[in-house]
Request: fold
Amino acid sequence: MIIMPLSSLAETDHKHNRQYKTHVHGAGILNWVMEGQRLQVSLKSPVINMLGFEHEPHDDSEKQQLALMIENLNNIAKVFELTDGDCELV
Reply:
């Protein structure tokens, strides 16, 4: 669910103003479903909550922040820790 805002962020022309959907900074929605021994998790959050800005990266520092955020979100073990069971991240 995070990929959509990131792809639109990357395509944003910073010379034009962009109207964002209403959202609350510091809040997100975490949904999880467990069926048998399978757990599915989804996270929906304004990109500013994880990145610190909502515009196309302007400098090398912001580009590094974006790359690190994507790397961390693509490594689920950095986002969630499953304990007290015979769990395996897939």
In short: The longest strand covers residues 29-35.
